[in-house]
Amino acid sequence: MTARKFEIELIGEIFHPDNDNIDVFVRFDNGEEFVGSFFTLNNIQELMKQKNLSRENVNGLYFWSSDLIIIEELSEENIELSIYDMLKEGGFYSAFSPTNKLAYDRVQKEAPVSLNDN
What we know:
Elements: E1 6-11, E2 21-28, E3 33-39, H1 41-54, H2 57-60, E4 68-70, H3 76-89, H4 92-95, E5 97-98, H5 101-110
Parallel strand pairs: 3-4
Antiparallel strand pairs: 1-2, 2-3, 3-5
């Protein structure tokens, strides 16, 4: 896969790089746009503790988030490096969700064939 030019937009601010989460829009030069949510492990553990105290999610038994990407430390540089690597290694379209028709069409084209497809 050839390198694709993109820009990212962080939705909000990173307050605690080792214990935080942030939503990220990825926009490619061709107009495709995707969204993903980056979490640190410390943040997931903290959120599960909060769910336990509030008795949500079966008292913190589980945690989920759509488009979840776990990262060691949140920074714009680390997020960009992660995106570059996912594009290079082929995991980007599984980790991020399309937000417009161009991106949705790309995902349909890149998606592996299902076992149920004939």
